[in-house]
Amino acid sequence: ILNVEQSPQSLHVQEGDSTNFTCSFPSSNFYALHWYRWETAKSPEALFVMTLNGDEKKKGRISATLNTKEGYSYLYIKGSQPEDSATYLCAFMDTGFQKLVFGTGTRLLVSP
Amino acid sequence: DTAVSQTPKYLVTQMGNDKSIKCEQNLGHDTMYWYKQDSKKFLKIMFSYNNKELIINETVPNRFSPKSPDKAHLNLHINSLELGDSAVYFCASSHSGTSGRETETQYFGPGTRLLVL
């Protein structure tokens, strides 16, 4: 059974704060790590697909890093805005099953 | 333009009924998926199809039967609905791995909220 864990479960920050979350996944048989942003009552939207150890990806104020040897990825949001409020999901894919296993998500609330 | 669409968006039905949820994607992807969002908000894979062929079939009751008439469509038929089937069902699509891992981003539909009474 593949275990993907995210922390914290929820986070409440003020507008302008920078924040980061963690995704932990198995360190063996790594294939890819996905990050998704999921707003309430909408569908998950892809942020990043990360495939190589040491990968760093950036989209606007959001960036992510990947460490496949120790099995973790960090998602950073610089200068959080209220529109960043959403659940951030990571999902792990290994070489064996070729399916995404999702974490439970980090629910971010940014207050103005 | 809606990339991945699902119908219906909401479905309220009685226990024991049979119902279908339809999914269509216009992204030219060759792989489609059904996910269930359970009561704890987990997204769990149910099925995936690649070029109309079943690739992943998780331990889902055989009351659930996916059907892929072509690469752009993956429908989910549920027989003898039970209370525990109440959930949000998401369809998704992606390219397969032959195009490179980074192209395998999954695009999700808006979800179908199923309530079994």
User: What Rg of chain B do the Cα atoms give?
Assistant: 14 Å
Low-confidence stretches of chain A: none
Question: In sequence order, what are the helices and strands of chain A, one letter per element?
Answer: EEEEEEEEEEE
| Protein structure class of chain B | mainly beta
3D shape of chain A: globular
Q: Quote the beta fraction of chain B.
A: over 45%
What can you see in these coordinates?
The complex is a heterodimer of chains A (112) and B (117). By secondary structure, chain A is an all-beta fold. In chain A, the strands form two sheets. In chain A, strands 2, 4, 5, 9, 10 and 11 form a six-stranded mixed β-sheet that branches. Chain A has a five-stranded antiparallel β-sheet with strand order 1-3-8-7-6, with no helix packed on it. Chain A is globular. Chain B has 117 residues and is mainly β. In chain B, strands 2, 4, 5, 6, 9, 10 and 11 form a seven-stranded mixed β-sheet that branches. Chain B has a four-stranded antiparallel β-sheet with strand order 1-3-8-7, with no helix packed on it. In chain B, strand 5 and strand 6 form a beta hairpin. Chain B is globular. The chains are: A mainly beta (112), B mainly beta (117). At the A-B interface, strand 4, strand 5, strand 9 and strand 10 of A face strand 5 and strand 10 of B.
